[in-house]
Design a protein that fits this description.
Oligomer: single chain
Family: Belongs to the inorganic phosphate transporter (PiT) (TC 2.A.20) family.
Strand order of the largest sheet: 1-2
Membrane topology: Multi-pass membrane protein
Radius of gyration: 24 Å
Structural class: mainly alpha
Number of strands: 2
Strand content: under 5%
Shape: elongated
Main location: membrane
Pfam family, one: PHO4
GO molecular function, one term: phosphate transmembrane transporter activity
Length: 496
C-alpha cells in the first residue's frame, strides 16, 4: 500500500500485512528442522563436555567443570536461537537479505565479536547482583553458578519455544539472584542493582520505540510524502546513512572494542561525528547514481536502504558477540576458576576455550533454531520494509549510546523489539490520522471501532506475549534457579 494514497478500500488487514508459510514444502522444512537441530545441538553439548574433560581431566573437581561446560554450551545454543534474531530480524523482514545470508553474516560477526573483542573480565557474580563472600564457601558458589547457568538456559529455551524474544542477560541475572537467595537468603541480593535492571525493562523498549518512530516520522515527512520522492531521497538518504554510520561508530567504540582499547564516551562521540561526516560525503555520489532512472514511488526508495541495512545487521551482531556472549558464559568461567583454584571472590578472566564454546554455540543455535525468532521479529509483529527496518537498527545503536551516557543497564533485545513496536504503532497512528483527515475533507463518516480494530498494523497477541515474557524473565529464572540449587545441593549431600 503506498503511503501517499491511503484509500480505505485498499487498506490491508493485519493477516494480509504479515507474511505466512504458503507452501507444503516450506511447511515440511519448518517441521523437520527442529528434529535435526535437536540432534546437532546435543552433539555440540557433548563436544563441549568432552573438551572440558580433555583440558581438566586430571584436575580436582573435573566432573563439575565438565557438567558446567555442557550447561554453558546449552546456554550458548539458546543465545543463538533467541538473542541474535533481534539483530537480523528487521533486515530479513524488510527483504534486504535472505534468511541464509542473514544467518551467514550473523555467524561470522557474532563469532568475531566474541573472540576478538569479547569482554576479558567479568564479575564472578553477574553484574554485582550478589556479593560472593555472602555464599560462604567455594562449593556453595559453584553450586549457585551451576544453578544460575542451567536455569537461565532453560528459561531462554522456553521463551524461544513460545516465540518470545527475551533478554539473555536478564535471564542470567535472574538465575544468579535466585541461586543466591536460595544459598544465602534475601539479604545477599544487591536490591539497588536489581532496581536499576527493573527500570531498564521499561526504559529500553520505550526509548528504542520512540527513537525508531521519530526517524520513521522524519523519513515520511521529508521523503515519502514529498511530491518528488527521488529528489528528496538524494538530499536526505546520504544524511540518514551518515547518521547511522556515526551512531554505529560510536556504539562500537563504546561497547564493541573494550577488550582491544578503552574509549570513553566523549572520545567515542567524536569518532562517531567524524565517521558520520565521512560516510555522508561518500554516500552523496553513490545515492545519486543508485537513484538514476528510479520511478517516483515508494517502492523505488527501498533500493537506497538495502546496503545500509546489511551493514547495520553485521555491526549489531559484532557488538552483540563482544558483549552479551561474555555475560552468558561468565558463570561458566567463574565455575572453572572456583573449581580449579578455589578463588571465587575476585573478578574472573574468561578463558579462550570458554569463549570458543560461546561463539560456536551461538553459531549453531542461530543456524538450527534462529529462523523462528528471526521471522517473529522481522515479519510477525508488524510489516517491515527497508525504511522501517533502518529506523529499528538506528534506534538500537542510539539507545545504547544514550543508556551508556545515563549509566543505565539496558537490554539489546528490549531495544530492538521496542523499535519494531515503535515503528508499528507509529504506522497505526499515522495511517489513522491521515484517514481521518481524508474522510473529513471528503465529508465521509469515520470508520466504526470494529473496522478500525480490524485494520491494526501491530499483532496484539505477539505484543502481549512478548511483554509478559519480559516482565517475568527475572522472577521466572530466579525461581527456577533457586529450585535447581536446592536439588543440586540435596543430591550432593546425599552422595557425600
Amino acid at each position: 500500500m503506498p503511503d501517499q494514497n491511503i484509500d480505505p478500500s485498499h487498506l490491508e488487514t493485519l493477516d494480509r500485512d504479515l507474511g505466512r508459510l504458503s507452501t507444503l514444502e516450506q511447511a515440511t522444512i519448518y517441521v523437520s528442522r527442529p528434529l535435526i537441530g535437536l540432534g546437532v545441538g546435543l552433539v555440540f553439548v557433548v563436544f563441549a563436555a568432552l573438551l572440558a574433560a580433555l583440558l581438566f581431566g586430571q584436575a580436582n573437581n573435573a566432573f563439575v567443570v565438565v557438567v558446567a561446560a555442557a550447561f554453558g554450551a546449552y546456554m550458548a545454543l539458546n543465545i543463538g536461537a533467541n538473542d541474535v534474531a533481534n539483530n537480523m530480524g528487521p533486515a530479513v523482514g524488510a527483504n534486504a537479505m535472505t534468511m541464509g545470508v542473514a544467518i551467514a553474516i550473523a555467524v561470522v560477526f557474532e563469532s568475531a565479536g566474541a573472540l576478538l573483542a569479547g569482554g576479558d573480565v567479568v564479575s564472578t557474580i553477574a553484574k554485582g547482583i550478589i556479593a560472593p563472600e555472602n555464599l560462604g564457601t567455594s562449593s556453595a558458589f559453584v553450586t549457585a553458578m551451576m544453578a544460575a547457568l542451567l536455569a537461565s538456559a532453560l528459561w531462554v529455551n522456553l521463551a524461544t519455544w513460545i516465540g518470545a524474544p527475551v533478554s539473555t542477560t536478564h535471564s542470567v541475572v535472574g538465575g544468579v539472584m535466585g541461586a543466591g537467595i536460595a544459598a544465602a537468603g534475601f539479604a545477599a541480593v544487591s536490591w539497588g542493582q536489581m532496581g536499576a535492571i527493573a527500570a531498564s525493562w521499561v526504559i529500553s523498549p520505550l526509548l528504542g520505540g520512540l527513537i525508531a518512530a521519530g526517524f520513521l516520522w522524519f523519513i515520511k515527512a521529508n521523503i515519502i510524502y514529498r511530491d518528488d520522492k527521488i529528489a528528496a531521497a538524494r538530499s536526505w538518504v546520504p544524511v540518514l546513512v551518515g547518521i547511522m554510520g556515526g551512531a554505529f561508530a560510536t556504539y562500537l567504540a563504546v561497547k564493541g572494542v573494550k577488550k582491544i582499547v578503552k574509549i570513553d564516551l566523549g572520545d567515542a562521540l567524536l569518532i562517531g561525528l567524524a565517521a558520520a561526516v565521512v560516510i555522508w560525503l561518500i554516500m552523496i555520489p553513490i545515492i545519486r547514481r543508485q537513484s538514476q532512472g528510479l520511478e517516483n514511488r515508494n517502492k523505488s526508495l527501498k533500493v537506497l536502504f538495502g546496503i545500509p541495512l546489511i551493514v547495520s545487521a553485521a555491526l549489531l551482531s559484532f557488538a552483540h558477540g563482544a558483549n552479551d556472549v561474555a555475560n552468558a558464559v561468565g558463570p561458566l568461567a567463574a565455575i572453572v576458576q572456583a573449581s580449579t583454584t578455589g578463588d571465587f571472590t575476585h573478578a574472573v578472566g574468561i578463558p579462550t576455550w570458554v569463549m570458543v564454546i560461546g561463539a560456536l554455540g551461538i553459531s549453531f543455535g542461530l543456524f538450527l533454531f534462529g529462523p523462528k525468532l528471526i521471522r517473529m521479529v522481522g515479519g510477525q509483529i508488524t510489516k517491515l520494509n527497508p525504511m522501517r527496518a533502518y529506523c529499528v537498527a538506528l534506534s538500537a545503536a542510539i539507545t545504547v549510546i544514550v543508556a551508556s551516557w545515563l549509566g543505565l543497564p539496558v537490554s539489546s533485545t528490549h531495544i530492538a523489539v521496542g523499535g519494531v513496536f515503535g515503528v508499528g504503532f507509529f504506522r497505526e497512528w499515522d495511517t489513522e490520522r491521515r484517514m481521518r483527515k481524508m474522510k473529513a475533507d471528503m465529508g465521509q463518516p469515520i470508520l466504526a471501532p470494529e473496522e478500525r480494530r480490524r485494520r491494526k498494523l501491530v499483532r496484539r497477541s505477539h505484543f502481549m506475549t512478548i511483554i509478559a515474557a519480559w516482565l517475568i524473565t527475572v522472577p521466572a529464572a530466579a525461581l527456577l534457579s533457586g529450585g535447581i540449587f536446592l536439588v543440586i545441593q540435596g543430591v550432593m549431600g546425599a552422595i557425600i
